[in-house]
Amino acid sequence: MKIQFDCVFYFVSDLDRSVRFYIDVLGLRLQSRDSVARFDIDGVLLELVPSPPAGKSPQSGNARLCLLVENVEEALEELHGKGVAITPAQKKSKGVLGSFFDPDGNEICLWRYDR
Question: What is the pTM of this model?
Answer without folding.
Answer: 0.76
